[in-house]
């Protein structure tokens, strides 16, 4: 299968994104090992592509390819060293700079750190003015009653108008804890989905290898077919060139036959 520098630079960008995602998983205390097989195969594919380009340059001098080889080799060495480290250097210029500018947004998203949301509740134990009383009543009306299902019967919700600030704070603390538990469960579910997506990615990489083998076989048989077609074309051309000579020989034979008969 043919290989060219743009394809290898795109593969290098794919490896960079995988390494950034691996570093992000480490920062989130997730297991990054599921990506190691994919990254290792991609690095091996990049190395094989560079060797193929070197063979092409050795057979036929091509300045456009030869000028790209040092940059490809440098990125291969840098990415290999980043992969071999227990914790890749996420600030490495090679790792953070895409070869294709259109991937800049993907690289920026991969380097973005997860934000820690802060939660705070403001309340007053002793409101002293009528303005504060009015604001407190407005806030209470906006907060209560709370329903998970807005379409449910409002009369079924408990009356919480008599809650003081401490009870409101305790209630919201409990709601926040429940939400945190739900978010933890959601995070675990997302982690399982991520593991599943990584396994699907590994399977797709295996299918890509099989498709590459099939493509190589198709290219090989196509080359054989072209050679056979060339031989048939040469035979047909020679037959057309010898057609007039064949007609002359046949006419001579007919003439000789007629002379023999007439004697």
Describe the protein.
The chain is mostly helical and 263 residues long. It has a domain at 1-114. 72% of the residues lie in helices and 0% in strands. α1 (5-27) packs parallel to α6 (104-111) and α2 (36-59) packs antiparallel against α4. The longest helix has 77 residues, at 165-241. Mean pLDDT is 76; it is low at 117-121 and 154-158.
The low-confidence runs, each spanning 5 or more residues with pLDDT under 50, are 117-121, 154-158
Q: How many alpha or pi helices?
A: 9
Tell how many strands the DSSP assignment holds.
Answer: 0
Separation of termini? Answer: 72 Å
Average pLDDT reading: 76
Class per helix and strand makeup: mainly alpha
Strand content: under 5%
Overall helicity: over 70%
Q: Describe the sheet with the most strands.
A: none
Reading the helices and strands in chain order gives: HHHHHHHHH
Report the principal-axis shape.
elongated
InterPro entries: T_SNARE_dom (IPR000727)
Keywords: Coiled coil, Membrane, Protein transport, Transmembrane, Transmembrane helix, Transport
Subcellular location: Endomembrane system; Membrane
Protein name: t-SNARE coiled-coil homology domain-containing protein
Chart the SSEs and their pairings.
Elements: H1 5-27, H2 36-59, H3 63-66, H4 69-84, H5 93-96, H6 104-111, H7 130-143, H8 165-241, H9 243-262
Helix pairs in contact: 1-2, 1-4, 1-6, 2-4
Give a brief description.
It is found in: Endomembrane system; Membrane. The protein is mainly α and 263 residues long. It has nine helices and no strands.
List the keywords.
9 helices; transmembrane helix; 263 residues; elongated; mainly alpha; single chain; 72% helix
